[in-house]
Amino acid sequence: MNYDTIILELLSRIQKLEEEVKSLREVISYASTEHTAGDNPKTTTGDIRTYIESQKLQAYSSGQTELTLKANDIHKNLQLKNRMPMVCNAMRQCMADHDVVLHDTASGHSSTLEIKYYLSGKS
């Protein structure tokens, strides 16, 4: 048996798990703070992207290979008010080449925007 190879592989896995734990802690911290329009009127597209990426990481960590998100669900979960265009923009910005828009409207900023994110290549 090549113990050096086994040890290096285990160290690599540990490092990956530590990174996932760090990301999940950020998700928990983010989710535990209130994000209402009244309390935090400066929610940015970047904040919404962070939320989407955390959802993708959570899904990937739990073994899912894809995640479908709807703009309305994100808007509600973050307790936003009148921020649908920001949510839709953030959703599109989080897309990779292989992700798919399942539902869209002419305006492109509808609460019914639905995107399927494929997670298999996520590190």
Give an overview in words.
- The structure is a single chain.
- The protein has one domain (3-118).
- The longest helix is centred in the first third of the chain and has 30 residues, at 3-32.
- The protein has helices at 3-32, 45-61, 71-77, 84-93; strands spanning 66-70, 100-103, 114-118.
- The protein has a three-stranded antiparallel sheet with strand order 1-3-2.
- It is mostly helical and 123 residues long.
- The chain contains four helices and three strands; from the N terminus they run ααβααββ.
Number of domains: 1
Q: How would you sum up the major sheet?
A: 3 strands, antiparallel
Shape estimate? elongated
β-strand number:
3
Sketch the topology as an H/E string, one letter per element: HHEHHEE
> What gap, in angstroms, lies between the N and C termini?
28 Å
Compute the number of helices: 4
Radius of gyration from the CA trace?
17 Å
What is the strand arrangement across the widest sheet?
1-3-2
In round numbers, the mean pLDDT is 85
Structural class: mainly alpha
